[in-house]
Amino acid sequence: MSKILVTGGLGYIGSHTVVALQEAGFKVVIIDNLSNASTKVLDGILAISGELPEFENFDLRNKLKTQEFFKKYDDLSGVIHFAASKAVGESVGNPLLYYENNVSTLIYVLQELNKKDNANFIFSSSCTVYGQADKMPITEEAPIKAAESPYGNTKQIGEAILKDTCKANQNFNTIALRYFNPIGAHKSAQIGELPIGVPQNLVPYITQTGAGVREQLSVFGDNYPTKDGTCVRDYIHVVDIAKAHVIALKRLLNKKYKENFEVFNLGTGTPSSVLEVIQSFERVSNKKLNYKIVDKRDGDVISAYADTNKANAVLGWKAKSTLDDAMESAWKWQQTL
Ligand code: UD1
C-alpha cells in the first residue's frame, strides 16, 4: 500500500488531509515539530479513521534529521508538504524565521526527494501569491505581483524553487495548490483549527467571540469598494481542501499530469464579505455577534476570490460545502474547546 509523508500533518489543513488520505486507503507518516500543533490531534485522527498514522516529532530545519528520515522511509510514494509558518503579521516582524521555516526546510526536503528515481510532491501554496489581483475571479494565469509580506514572498519563492526543480528533473512531479481562505472543521468535531493565542484569522476570531472567549470582533474597514464596504474573500471548507489533495496526489501517482509542474486554485468561486461571514455565523449559531467597525488592517487586499474552472475541469474537483456548512462546522468545533 502506498505510503505518503505529510509534513505539518498535525496542523489545521494537514490533519484534515491525513484523514482524507486514510479514507482513500493511503498509509500516512507525519512529520511535525509541534510548534503550532499538539499530539492530541493524533487522538482526533484516530477517533475519525480508526487508524493511527506514524508520527515523527522533529523540526525540518534540522537537515541531518531530515536526511535520516528519508533514509529510514525509503518507500514513500508521495509527499504533501504543509509544514510552514503562516502568520502574515509575524512574518513582517521576523522575516528570517519565515525564510528559514518556509524556504530552507522546503529545500532540505526537495534535496532528499531529488535523489530518488521519481518524486511526487504537493505544495501548500496560497492565493496570497496574487497580491491584489486586477481581475476577479482570479485565474491561475493572473500575474504574480510583488508580495505584500515575507510570508507571501515565501510562497512565491517556494513555487519558483519547485518550478525550477521540476524543469531540471523530469522525474520530479509537483502540484502547487493555491488555497483561498480555508475555514471550518471536520463534521465529527474531532479535529479543527487550534489557533495559539489571539486568532489572527477571521473565522476563529468570530467563533471565539461567539463562545465568549473574546469580547468583540473588530471588522477591519467598511469603506472598501465592495458590495457592503468590507473586504471580500473566498472562504472554503477545509474538508473540501483536504479532498483536493487526495485527488491531486492520485493525479501524480497515476501520471495523469500534462506537465510535471502544475498549479491549481482551491476556492469555491463565491465571494463573501466580512459582514456576510458574520451573518452566516449568526444564522448557524442563533447568536448575535458582538462586533465593531475599526480602521483598515495594513496589508489587506480588497478582494480575492477564485476562478475554479481549472481545478473543476482538470482535477475533476469542486468544493461542495457552502459558507453556512463551513461556519456550522467551525461553531460545532469551537464548542468542544
Ligand atoms: C491572508 C492571505 C492568505 C493567507 C492568510 C494567512 C490573502 C488574500 N490571503 O488571508 O493567503 O494564507 O492570510 O493568515 O492575502 N478580518 C477582520 N477582523 C479580524 C480578522 C480578519 O475584519 O479580526 C477580516 C480581514 O480584514 C479580511 C478577512 O477578515 O478581510 C479575512 O482575514 P483573514 O482570516 O486574516 O485572512 P486573509 O487576510 O484573507
Report on the structure:
This protein is of the alpha/beta class and 337 residues long. The protein has eleven helices and 13 strands. It has helices at 12-23, 40-49, 63-72, 88-93, 95-113, 150-168, 202-210, 238-253, 274-285, 309-315, 323-334, and strands at 3-7, 27-31, 54-56, 76-81, 119-126, 172-179, 181-183, 217-220, 232-233, 235-237, 261-266, 272-273, 291-294. The strands form four sheets. The chain has a seven-stranded parallel beta sheet, with helices on both faces. The protein has a two-stranded parallel ribbon with strand order 7-10. Helix 7 packs across helix 11 (323-334). The radius of gyration is 19 Å and the shape is globular. The mean pLDDT is 97. The chain binds uridine-diphosphate-N-acetylglucosamine. Uridine-diphosphate-N-acetylglucosamine binds next to helix 7 and strand 8.
Total strands: the figure is 13
With strands numbered from the N-terminus, the spatial order across the biggest sheet is 3-2-1-4-5-6-11
Q: Approximately how much beta-strand content do the residues carry?
A: 15-25%
In angstroms, what separates the terminal alpha carbons? 35 Å
- Heterogens: uridine-diphosphate-N-acetylglucosamine
Shape: globular
Order of helices and strands: EHEHEHEHHEHEEHEEEHEEHEHH
Radius of gyration: 19 Å
| Helix fraction bin | 25-40%
Q: What is the average per-residue confidence, as pLDDT, rounded to a whole number?
A: 97
Main sheet characteristics: 7 strands, parallel
Judged by helices, strands and strand pairing, the structural class is alpha/beta
* Helix count, DSSP H or I runs of 4 or more residues: 11
Low-confidence stretches: none
